[in-house]
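Q: C-alpha cells for this one, please.
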Amino acid sequence: MDINELKYYLNVSSKICDNSIKLTLKNESGELLNELKRLSPVDKGDYRDSWKNTVYNGSNGTKSEFTNDMVYGPVIEKGSIPGNKPWPNPGPKTILSDGRIFSTQAIGGTIDKVFSNQKINILANELAKTIEGSFK
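A: Here is the predicted structure, written as C-alpha cells:
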C-alpha cells in the first residue's frame, strides 16, 4: 500500500466512523430527550414540550445540544430562593428542598437526573462500541 492508498483508506474510515458516531449520538440523544420530557413538571406542558435536541458537527467533532427556551427553566432546575419570586414560599405545587423551593413534580430539577454519571457512562460505552464496530 502506498501513501496515497493509506490516505484514502484513513479518510474513508474516518468518514464511516464519524457517520456511525453521529447516528449513535442521535439515537442516544433521542432517548435522553425523551427522559428529560418524561421527568419535566407539567402544568400546561409548555416546559416539557420546549425541550429540543440538536446533533451537529462542531469544531471539535460531533456535538449533541439540549435546550429549553422557557424563561422559567432555571427556576425549575435550580429552584427558587425562599423569599424571592417566583416562589417565595412553598405552596400547594411546590416544596422546600435543600434550601430551595422546587416544583413538587421536579424536586432537584430534571437535568441532573437525566445526565447522571451512570447515564453518561452508558452513552460513552455505546459510542465506544460504535467506534470499534465501524472498523470491523
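A few notes: The chain has a mean pLDDT of 88. The chain has one domain: 3-134.
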